[in-house]
Amino acid sequence: MSNINLLPWRESVRAGQKKQFMVILAVASLITVTVMLTANMWIHQQIARQQQRNQFLQNETAKLDLILGEMRNIREQRLKLLERMTLIEHFQQRRNLSVRLFNQLPELVPPGVYLSSLNVVDHSLDIVGKTEAYPRVANMIRQVENSGWLYEPRISSIFASDVQPIALSQFSMRLRVREFIPGATQ
């Protein structure tokens, strides 16, 4: 056989392959760097956009906190005003109680029953008086129950008195006064 030296040919092929490999490696590196830079820019844009959203939400939350604080103050003022209105309404109702009581007292107290004292405390009415007979006090209790604005008449005590010339029985009674409701007919 003849001696053919294929080494230079192999070296030139290897050199070509090495050059081709280096070009492919450079292109792949360039593509990788480009993709990484593009991905990095996209991620930074997304982060910046999210930070803008977060800042917007924080600003809006701060505005809402201010509004909620104002609403809380308005609610407190409203509750105070409602309490004042209720108190004034209560005073107006109580103001008419004595007039109403003295207007209807002659209708409620039958003949033969004499009242010595009348005391109003909150929604209670304490009555102390004298009567000629027990049935007259019972009649007074029935009339109180039918009045509609007085209720729960209770006799605290009733006893015969030994005072002469007329023997009158002394009694004490407690009534409850119904609160006046505006617009309701009584």
UniProtKB/TrEMBL annotation:
Signal peptide range in chain numbering: none
Keyword Zinc-finger attributed: no
The protein's name: Fimbrial assembly protein
Keywords for this protein: Membrane, Transmembrane, Transmembrane helix
Spans through the membrane: 21-43
Transmembrane helix in keyword set: yes
One GO term (biological process): type IV pilus-dependent motility
Highest taxon of source: Bacteria
